[in-house]
Amino acid sequence: xxxxxFWWFVGPSLFMMVLFIAGPLVGVAVQSFQQQRxxxxxxxxxxxxxxxxxxxxxxxxxxxxxxxxITRTVWVGWDNYAALLNGPAVRNALANPxxxxxxxxxxxxxxxxxxxxTFALVTLPLVIVLGLLLALAVNTLTEQLKGPTIFVTLLxxxxxxxxxxxxxxxxxxxxxxxxxxxERLLQQEIAMFAQGWTIELMMLGYRVWHVVxxxxxxxxxxxxxxxxxxxxxxGIDGATRWQKLRHVIVPHLMPLIVFVSLIHLMDSxxxxxxxxxxSASGYRISLQWLTYDFLIPDESGNRSIGRxxxxxxxxxxxxxxxxxPLLRNTWKEQRQA
Amino acid sequence: MNGPxxxxxxxxxxxxxxxxxxAVWLLIAIFPxxxxxxxxxxxxxxxFAPNIFDVLGGPETxxxxxxxxxxxxxxxxxxxxxxxxxxxxxxxxxxxxxxTTGELKVxxxxxxxxxxxxxxxxxxxxxTPWVGTALERLTPDGPLSQPLLGATLQHFxxxxxxxxxxxxxxxxxxxxGGVVAISLTIGALAxxxxxxxxxxxxxxILIIALVFRALPHSTLVTGYLPPFIELGxxxxxxxxxxxxxxxxxxxxxxxLRSFFTNVPSSLDEAAMVDGATRLQAFWHVIMxxxxxxxxxxxxxxxxxxxxxxxxxxxxxxxxxxxMVPAIMQxxxxxxxLTDQLEAIAAAVSITGxxxxxxxxFQKQIVSGxxxxxxxx
Amino acid sequence: MKRWIIxxxxxxxxxxxxxxxAQCSINNETPLTMLSNSFEAWKIMSxxxxxxxxxxxxxxxxxxxxxxxxxxxxPAVFSMVGVSNSTLTxxxxxxxxxxxxxxxxxxxxxxxxxxxxxxxxxxxxxxxxVNAQHLMYRADILDVLGLDVPETYPEVLEVxxxxxxxxxxxxxxVGTFGAGWNLGEEFVNMYLGYDTPMFTADNRPNVxxxxxxxxxxxxxxxxxxxxxxxxxFDSTAAQQKMQQSQAAMTNLWATRAxxxxxxxxxxxxxxxxxxxxxxxxAGGAPATTLWWDGISIAANISDEEAEAAFKVLxxxxxxxxxxxxxxxxxxLSNPAIESxxxxxxxxxxAGGAPAxxxxxLIGIMHNAAGEFIPAYLNGETSxxxxxxxxxxxxxxAAQENGLIN
Lengths: 337, 376, 405
Prior knowledge:
In chain A, strand 2 and strand 3 form a beta hairpin. The longest helix of chain A has 32 residues. Chain A contains 14 helices and 4 strands. Chain A has a domain of 229 residues: Orthogonal Bundle (MetI-like fold), CATH 1.10.3720.10. Chain A is globular. Chain B has 376 residues and is mainly alpha-helical. Chain B has 2 domains: 84 residues, no CATH class; 207 residues, MetI-like fold. With 405 residues, chain C is α/β, with parallel strands linked by helices. Chain C folds into 2 domains: 163 residues, Periplasmic binding protein-like II (D-Maltodextrin-Binding Protein, domain 2); 210 residues, 3-Layer(aba) Sandwich (D-Maltodextrin-Binding Protein, domain 2), CATH 3.40.190. In chain C, strands 1, 2, 3, 4, 5, 6, 7, 8, 9 and 10 form a 10-stranded mixed sheet that branches. In chain C, helix 2 crosses helix 11. Chain C is globular. Chain C starts with a helix and ends with a helix. Chains in contact: A-B, A-C, B-C. Strand 2 of chain A pairs antiparallel with strand 4 of chain C.
């Protein structure tokens, strides 16, 4: 294919990605070094509400001739990053090794980073192993059972994520029926939403529930292409079931395992729905939740776009770092191809 | 599907434990969803009851509104059996639409699914209530006429009729349809281009697309709001379609590219030797063998667009809103538990199309993945 | 069940659209839109306005995210926006809402003076409802135990202890203590209950002090009597606990009062009574803040559109509409709409509870409180650490915006 034709084919897709992904990305990077500031003055202001009239000193932003607030864009260098990483607090925490972990957990960014990384790295092996086991197990079912089994298996994956999270939440919150059941089983009071680790466990569980079907269907499709001659050959060599799995099936599925890991790490590093769905923010926050929290205006319309952008940039750097081993793999493959 | 034959020859203990694994998983997979369905047909007092049997049986709902009698349950079970038989007998019923091997052609498949759906719908929504009521009138005091399970469809009625939820359904279908169509079109072009070009630049486009796939969406999307309002695009559904297509492009081109890579390039080269242009070769020679890949990729696009909350919630207003944000508004209105149940009813309703989609395309997903993506 | 099935099937077959009750006495011909919060009261008003024709309401719980950009566009994306104490302030400061003085003079004869929200003489919004958190308690339980209705938070703790000892309910209290906005609101209520300013004259934070610690300790003491999951509780969860008789007292929004007597979901119909919010200390004002909600009209629309919008606005908040839902909110209306559920909020106001502050500063502190107090409540930090973290977060955000140097 010559270059001209290539660009015609790739052009529309590339254009969309540049306009809607690369463009905003540059914008975010620039904003992470800026702050939007207004100037404020204190004036005497008379205001009336249903609760009566008051005259008080109020701090109000200075407006221009058009009545709009005058804001100026200030380049602040690494200030946004510094505020986010909160160096002094980190130094304080580290100065007191016995208490360092607790103190670090009070700094939102480090708290969020800890949870996000744990979330991604703990769910990954669970998803891969469960998906693989399930694929192997379903593969041994009779043809009549395969269809319905695959259908039901896929449900957690296709259901709208926010709704799936809420469904699981209802099973556990308060005297939700699963909590009630657990209480009867263990003969003790259980409050699943009363401490961080149980909430974290539920969020991990939800994500695994949601993603295992994806891993399953990819692996299952991959199993259909394992050449049976190789397995037969392995059988003749007297390989045990475990050896076959280890030396024939897993290597065959390796590219798929890498693919699923890649997708899963990307998605789980962006964890956000779970924090909202499980009302977890009192105990656990994630990087994307933190970014969003900076981004949305508070009760009086203030927002921290600079810190949100810095947080977003650090999130992106984090995901690239975590993906490097897998990306290197893909890189080599593509190079060879 | 020709599974490797000796995988089937498992000793008893392995087979048993693998079946147990599947059974446990199926229970875990379906339970939360099934529970939503149960809750959606109860009054709040039952739906949020701590006792599992109160939720299932719905005593308050039974007392206040009524429910399904033994007649109804029997009729429903009959309907399900009938539907299942109609579906499994589809090759026989629609013989005229089958090819020589007995497999149904596309028209026959569509017709058979329509028949299945019609059987289920007519049986459950028309025959069951009317015949059930008639039977109950005949034996008003008989034990079979007494409500057995409390159930009510009032939440569904509130959602669909009182709150005009069908407006959001239309919006969702429009946006989802648009996203799938445009996404596949430009994605297929790009995927084909990338599969047939082995240069540095193609390689870098793929790597960068992969990185784009990893970016946190909320940051990007929130940035769209001011310019979109400025340009008058707020509340415009095509703007949401375009944004979703763009966000979904990295995944789409990676998927489709791996499908195209598995189609031998001798095919299109032969066509071009015969005088076809690149585009003609792509359209007339390559696309016809690409359908499993296109369907599989399309399903992923469908799910992304249909389940999207972030983009639609931010860029659409009341009347143009899609279903998922509309449901979240129900939850946020949160004045009464009844509202919450209406939201659950809405949530159950929107899961319907996803069910049907997977039911219909399940085979294509697996065979599509088998053919393409999992190799490349 | 069956009736509904048949009804559903018939409705789909005939394509029956939902018919909003035609309540509007005018026929609006100018296309109008409104962006507002999404709770029930807004739905009532939005539906009434829809019946005037050519009106489209967007009820959106995330409306704060959009309102500024939407009004800043020219022409504005929405002709009207729902506002409250706090959300109106930045819009007025940015010149995005229209002074309504002439329109009120021309069409607003029926409005009460108290409905007019003014800033330096400009009418910038028309308010139609007020709201506040106040005490709701199980009168039957207090009666059985021979307890008085608590008037201060220390008394609340005593009463809660008695109820818990009696074994009538496991967790006598419930509250909107959910991390984030809800808990922030609890802190603002409690702290202002000590009648200490939250900021110094030069806009620096002033919460890491005796009263701040006292407020936090009180919140924690209250939490001891609540269901252990209280950090995830929003208003609906608190309402549900009361309705299911799993709590005996709460400081809950007036808009939730009617739900206690809703037979469809409540097991405690007729048992819950209302009183002023408890004071933080004996002799103090009720520790709660008063809120109002209202509607503003965008500055960036034509005068004709504004005039049409104002007429539709009046239709949406007129007596005939609001009086059909007397318990959905505490309505401001002429003639007045009597409601049994208003007593708690009225008593709080009469006791001297302050209005929620309308300033640029409060939002930042409110946010910080919602973010850092959970760690104190679940035992990870001390009160002083939490308050210091809040002040730090406040300083960072205020500096970013230019509020302080």
